[in-house]
């Protein structure tokens, strides 16, 4: 649903509205959340436990990973370790948001808690000077879609089937749009080519952990990134 | 049936690990903010990580597509081209997604 009250872009300043950033996340999070809720209930857990996972853990990939491990009754420590490996990349997200998040403790720590791949990508794109309230709104909306999807999947169960293949491409499209925006505002396109090369290497070496390995390689390359020559001129 | 106490223990451990990872850079913020390496990463990482998330999503999606990665390629090039041209996020995302859904559900007889 596209609301006509969606604030129109200010002329001259390209601005992406909070709602239009959350809609594509919804198109990915609702169906994916439904799959999680459905699988979790199928594995023998009550619906409210699926909801608890999406409210408190809120990390898609590790929630999916946890379903068979929980059903197999693996030790808590080994599930925690697997979560650590799968979510390790989230640690790097904060590095580029240190100066961007609001300083009010409530808003700041909720945003840190809600720092999934998609919410990170949306937060990095918001223009400087975005109000804390708007940042929290977009993060709350995103988690709301995930929780809603989980609830639908857990409660409706087998009847909840999506007729069209490929709607979850909206998430890839969101990443594509945000990559273009980062590309346009970057001082050089080198990070993009470094990322492509890192991912190629990671796929060849460790396809199971390609994303994590590629991020680690990119971070290493970024450490050698030369200091900006326009440091003083930059705002 | 999954034991509830055990499951709650697993969820609590996962919550602590996930939140801890996300919070670590902020807990060390006073040290990190002034560090030149971190400022370098702050300028380098957003484009690199966004590219990686895009690649990873595309590779995952193409891996589940029996007729090859063509639908993904066409849809992502369309999305990025539209975004570069018009800079309208919702338009680019909707057009790219609808094109992908059409390619997957109608065309591409394998």
Note down, in words, how this protein is organized:
The complex is a heterodimer of chains A (235) and B (110). By secondary structure, chain A is mainly alpha-helical. Chain A has 2 domains: 5-168, no CATH class; 186-235, no CATH class. Chain A has helices at residues 18-42, 47-57, 60-71, 76-87, 90-95, 105-113, 117-125, 132-156, 169-185, 190-205, 210-223. The longest helix of chain A is centred in the first third of the chain and has 25 residues, at 18-42. In chain A, 42% of the residues are buried. Mean pLDDT of chain A is 82; it is low at 1-14 and 229-235. By secondary structure, chain B is mainly alpha-helical. The longest helix of chain B is centred in the middle third of the chain and has 28 residues, at 36-63. The termini of chain B are far apart. At the A-B interface, helix 1, helix 2, helix 3, helix 4 and helix 5 of A face helix 1, helix 2, helix 3, helix 4 and helix 5 of B. Chain A: The chain crosses the membrane at residues 21-41, 74-95, 138-156, 162-180, 192-225. Chain A: Keywords: Cell membrane, Membrane, Transmembrane, Transmembrane helix, Transport.
Note the main attributes of this structure.
heterodimer, A: 235 residues, mainly alpha, 2 domains, 11 helices, B: 110 residues, 83% helix, transmembrane helix (chain B), transmembrane (chain B), Branched-chain amino acid transport (chain B), membrane (chain B)
Protein topology:
The complex is a heterodimer of chains A (235) and B (110).
Chain A: H1 18-42, H2 47-57, H3 60-71, H4 76-87, H5 90-95, H6 105-113, H7 117-125, H8 132-156, H9 169-185, H10 190-205, H11 210-223
Helix pairs in contact in A: 1-2, 1-3, 1-8, 1-9, 2-8, 3-4, 6-8, 7-8, 7-9, 10-11
Chain B: H1 4-27, H2 29-33, H3 36-63, H4 70-86, H5 89-105
Helix pairs in contact in B: 4-5
């Amino acid at each position: 649903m596209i609301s006509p009250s969606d604030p129109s872009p200010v002329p001259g300043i390209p601005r992406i509205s909070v709602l239009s950033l959350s809609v594509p996340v919804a198109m990915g999070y609702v169906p994916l959340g439904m799959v999680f809720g459905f699988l979790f209930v199928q594995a023998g857990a009550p619906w409210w436990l699926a909801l608890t996972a999406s409210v408190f853990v809120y990390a898609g990939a590790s929630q999916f990973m946890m379903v068979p491990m929980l059903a197999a009754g693996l030790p808590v420590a080994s599930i925690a370790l697997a979560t650590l490996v799968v979510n390790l990349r989230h640690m790097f997200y904060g590095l580029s948001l240190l100066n961007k998040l609001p300083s009010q403790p409530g808003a700041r720590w909720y945003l840190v808690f809600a720092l999934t791949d998609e919410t990170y990508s949306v937060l990095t794109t918001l223009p400087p000077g975005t109000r804390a309230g708007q940042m929290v709104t977009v993060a709350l909306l995103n988690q709301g879609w995930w929780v809603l999807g989980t609830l639908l999947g857990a409660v409706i169960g087998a009847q909840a089937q999506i007729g069209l293949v490929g709607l979850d491409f909206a998430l890839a499209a969101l990443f594509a749009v945000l990559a273009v925006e980062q590309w346009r505002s970057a001082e050089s396109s080198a990070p993009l080519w470094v990322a492509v090369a890192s991912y190629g290497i990671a796929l060849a070496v460790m396809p199971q952990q390609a994303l994590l390995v590629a991020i680690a390689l990119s971070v290493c390359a970024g450490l050698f990134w030369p200091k900006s020559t326009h440091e003083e001129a930059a705002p | 049936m999954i034991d509830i106490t055990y499951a709650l223990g697993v969820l609590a451990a996962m919550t602590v690990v996930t939140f801890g990872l996300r919070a670590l850079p902020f807990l060390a913020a006073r040290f990190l903010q002034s560090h030149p390496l971190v400022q370098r990463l702050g300028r380098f990482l957003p484009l690199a990580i966004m590219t990686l998330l895009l690649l990873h999503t595309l590779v995952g999606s193409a891996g589940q597509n029996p007729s090859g990665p063509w639908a993904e390629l066409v849809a992502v090039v369309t999305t990025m081209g539209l975004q570069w041209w018009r800079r309208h996020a919702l338009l680019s995302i909707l057009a790219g997604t609808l094109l992908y859904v059409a390619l997957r559900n109608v065309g591409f007889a394998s």
